[in-house]
Specification:
With 211 residues, this protein is of the alpha/beta class. It has six helices and eight strands, in the order E-E-E-H-E-H-E-H-E-H-E-H-E-H. It has a single domain, classed as Alpha/Beta hydrolase fold, catalytic domain (Rossmann fold), CATH 3.40.50.
Length: 211
Amino acid sequence: MTGAGGAGITFPTVDGERIAGEVATATSARAAVVLCHPHPQFGGTMRSLVISELFAALPAAGITALRFDFRGVGTSTGAYDGGRSEVHDAEAALSALADHSDAPRFLIGWSFGADVALSTRDAAVHGWVAIAAPLRFGTDLATTGGDARPKLLLLAEHDEFRDPDEVRTETAGWTATDCEIVGGASHFFVGRTAALAERATAWVLDHVAGS
């Protein structure tokens, strides 16, 4: 696989932006993942804590990983659009990921990125992992909730931005959805990132094996 920092890439969106990212490839990858970072207007980038933990852990487990900066972040062109046009960024990342792996593709997002991931219903998506999803920035999340493809919601027990019980109530009727609480965790998962990455990795591999 590539080094810990990954290889730098850029790729286009359907609306003409250029998105900057990095890819870390795994040898004989069993799965491939696009990582979506937290809120751009509150310091979120592809190098945010949880995203960086996953980007390091996934290739070691046999999963190729692609992380990227949403439009308007870093050297990605464009401007913040409240989670709407950012779906184009995630779709473009899925397409770019196919150039590096033919394994089943998953979307994993944290916070704002979780809502964007859940709003991305591209046919290429094998499943979704939404970490501390606020369910406030997504577009038509009920449609994703009714989708038969597998979903994992990982919620922080002490989330400062959205009570996990509220999220569980809102998603109670979702199809093919696992909802789990990460004990002792805040929205930022400080001290819990390794366990979080381990759970997300295991879930992805389980759903490749079970497909």
